[in-house]
Fold Nudix hydrolase 23, chloroplastic.
Amino acid sequence: MHDPGKEHCQAVKWILRHIRNTVDVGLIFEQEDSQYLVGYCDSDYAGDLDKRRSTTGYVFTSNAPVSWKSTLQSTVVLSTTEAKCMTITEAGNIRKINFCQFCGGSTKHEIPDGEEKVRAICTRCGKIIYENPKMVVGCLIEHDKKILMCRRKIQPSYGLWTLPAGYMEIGESAAEGAIRETLEEANAEVEVQSPFAQLDIPLIGQTYMIFLAKLKTPHFSPGPESSECRLYELDDIPFDSLAFSSMLVTLKLYIEDIKVGRPKFHYGIINKRPGTSPSEIHAYTLDYHMQS
Ligand SMILES: [Zn+2]
């Protein structure tokens, strides 16, 4: 910068123009119920006029911004695609595993021999830390042509409606987990009758296994994680205040099945539309839908 030229003058003008057009834009910190982390990232291309380097920018928000960065990339890229790629990689580092779960040593991120993906590798004990999806198990309980639903008393999705479901535990089967979750959330004893839907959500590393079930006795009441439990007629299901896309898909598939006969078994992949928040449960596509 010891010899500023025309390009630098142009850059200063850009900055001033940017400031003038964004004086009424700011970060707002306000309290909401959502506990989701949402990230946005972008880059320019060779915006640094001296060294032709591009700029990485990202922001992660959870109601309010929690982490953000705008920095020159460490190497010169040859295309806008490459610049974006570097940005996504850098933003993705936020979620990286930094410590070994076996010995507590710090990790490095490399592609191990014979593998294809970057993994966290412990620099002390050498173990590779693999991340695998989690299994969520639950029950779709029909009773007198109504569906048993729970209103969540915990985050995420506090106050919204869901089917009784939760993470499967080590040492239990999917069906046992679904029965246990139903007992915990709705104090209801159920008998599992058949698998109804397996729904994968690759973006958040979850797979849902929902079973059709019947109440053993017609008793239920809210468990510690529910504020309310009730049976909904199919026409009255609160589609405007459901907790998760997975429940929306499950209930829609079930209602479609019932309209034309009896429940089938469904498999599908729930892909969230890019750039949408996880709390926008209607912003998804159901891909690779198979039924039998
Ligand atoms: Zn280790």
User: Anything to note?
Assistant: The first strand starts at residue 38 and ends at 43. Residues 100, 102-103, 105, 122, 124-125, 127 surround zinc ion (CB under 6 Å). The two ends are 68 Å apart (CA to CA). The first helix runs from residue 6 to 21.
